[in-house]
Amino acid sequence: MEDLKERVFRGGLARLCGQGINFILRLGYTATMARLLHPEDFGVVAMVVAVTGVYDLFTTAGLSLATVQRKAITDEQISTLFWINLLVGMLLCVTCVATAPLLVAFYHEPRLFWVTVAMGAGFLFNAAGVQHSALLQRQLRYVDLTIIEVSSLFIGFAFGISLAISGSGYWALVGAAIAVPAVSSCLMWFFTAWVPQFPRRGVGIRAMLSFGGTITINNLIVYFAYNLDKLLVGRFWGATSLGVYGTAYQLANVPTNSLIGAVGGVAFSALSRLQDDAVRLKNYFLKGATLLVSITAPITIFSAVFANEIVLVILGPKWVDAALIFRLLTPTILVFSIINPTGWLLQSTGLQVRSLRIAMVIAPLVITAYVIGLPYGPKGVALGFSMAMVLWVVPHVLWCLHDTQISPREFFSAISRPFFAAIAAVILPLVFTLLWLDQLLSPFFELLIAGCMMVSLYLSLLLFVFGGGNFYWGILRGLKSSLRTRSL
Questions:
Q1: What's the predicted TM-score (pTM) here?
Q2: Interatomic CA distance for residues 381 and 399, integer angstroms
């Protein structure tokens, strides 16, 4: 416990650096595939992923989080959980085969049959590395996890791009989706050097199965709620419309998902270790939430303002219809960066049942928003989704923090400075672009100049005007200290 702070700083730095690389890889992959393939190709795969993504939630069965969250765990318990994960992966692979004809009938699209069958292999590869990944997280070995994630993405994306260049169409997207977990699991085994024992009965995993089951049900409800929009758009507006909507959604999520994953993974591991230390848990939680919003707020606000230029630069002219959808979806990403930290708190402290109840309220709220917006096409669905999430953010935080050692006032106070600094920082770049740059420069140079201006203004406001200097300098000093300790 003595070196927890240093390990958290090192892990956080590794994850942030890794997610920066992942962001570049994902952005480059999306930009490349958008130019090599057609929106319809993306739509065909999205039709399948909207359903098989539900199955993916069962790959871990919540048992990876159970391994990380547990105060003490034996090798026999981890080994038994490994075989349970592998069995679940096999069942999901078979389920994909059984689902294939149903998807063909639902969408009236025969190409979906073999795509669905092929995607089943990814579940088996994923399941083989679940407990190995959990071990690395439990030990806060985030440098190793970063190397694994970056390597698997690079190899998988390179494989997908090579298929696209060869003219494989939507099969290029399928190939990449299978290659990434295959490479990742192989590297997990190599880095952990852990070989599971044969499963045993009576090793005390019932409580862990209960924890994992609650987490899985929670994730299932949340996934269904946040992905039914794609199912509805594909069913009622077709593959091309879904391709545009799904790609805009993915583009909006690329930077923030990476950051949420980076901070969230480290935060969950740290908070799990601090369950019995209320003062340090509160301190770590508020710092993690502030850091996350500090990074995501300027990105999402900049994306909303300069959506047209971003889509033109990254996706190209044939994706111009995605710009408005991209802009309409950006508020949801900012909301996720605010509410996700409360999920880390609930699950790491054993309040996963409350998290499940909250999910059961979110689901009908966003589904209703989809249905209201559906007659107006993908843009209506995007607008309905964003409005529902913006209205939900305050009740969500109040419910999550009720009867915990953290008050809503403390939470909102912690994240308010980066939020308002980001809003203020985007005004000058927007005015400058509209008055001088809009007709003079290409979209790329507009983004470059506006981005540099906003970063400079944001950092100046955040550090000096809004009084956040001590907090961020403290983080930098902690990183420097942890790196010095590691080098010694």
A1: 0.67
A2: 26
